[in-house]
Here is the input.
Amino acid sequence: MLNITGSIRIDKKTKHLVQRLNPGEIAVIDHRDIDSTSARMLVEHRPAAVINADKSISGRYPNSGPMILAQAGIPLIDNAGKEIMQLLHEGDEVQIQNGEILQDGKKVADGVILSIEDVRNLENIARSNLSAELENFVQNTMYYISQEKFLILDPIEVPYTRTDFAGRHALIVVRGERYKEDLMAMKSYIQDMKPILIGVDGGADALLELGLKPDIIVGDMDSVTDKALLCGAEIVVHAYGNGPHNAPGYERVSKLGIEPAVFPLQGTSEDMAMLLAYEKDAELIVAVGTHSNLIDFLDKGRAGMASTFLTRLKIGSKLVDAKGASRLYKRTIYVRDYLFLFASAAVVVFVIAMQSPAFRTSFRLMFLKIKSFIGF
Here is the structure.
């Protein structure tokens, strides 16, 4: 029997909520088809439970977010009803008894607790619908491609940046599946090649967490912290039409005393980052956490995917996906490696020590004693 009491954090956007969520609090979200990135962000903040006003798996496609929460041992109360977003407020204390959500002893909403088995069954149902969803995806993508083919055919006007891309590598960080692990796996590459570091919204914070300062931050500025925006990086806000009034992040950045560059583009912010690097003649574009497979695209939504296809088609061989780099190769250290390391160090220490007259005298005396003891 599930019985949890705690204060809530509530927000329609999961990526906004996690910025305020503390361990042990109850997260209240309105998120249809919870994606893996959102689920991992929730798991990192260790809430006591997650209440979703919408369906965590609608059946449209087999999204992996609910299974990530279930396997992490975080109770997920599903489909509690849209009304809960108006009935509850930030900081309210609620009690969860099985699927019921109570406030001051009165039932506010009623949801369904999703067990691992429940999630698995829903995933199987969604997987059976994937063929129809793929057909819809292709049809919608073809429509958007017909509307946005200028991305390939026409030159794109990019804003001025102080950072010179010509002949350099550019590393783009997006908060996607396993982006933190993949970024950690790229540390040696970053140290050796010193690429231009571009954070897409919250990707800038991922760079800072690794001790790296982003050179450029791009996006809507809705999931990046003030700390990142004030770190000294160039800021390029994404506009969905000409002029700052069409750039959702412009006002926020301006309030921090920063005058950002504005990049009008109908695509997504990660597309914008790639096109910025490409049009400014980066030698190679390395992408961490970006969307690159069918489930990623369905997580992201069909409408935004045409620009991603076109962008990747335009960039071509200049683009390298680092997704899964952390799982590419894990070095196994054997006992012989330790023995070799110890022997190498011992030889170095012995050679250095032999330069000391006192050590040489002590070594000769020890050698003579051993020789006398064994009868030579």
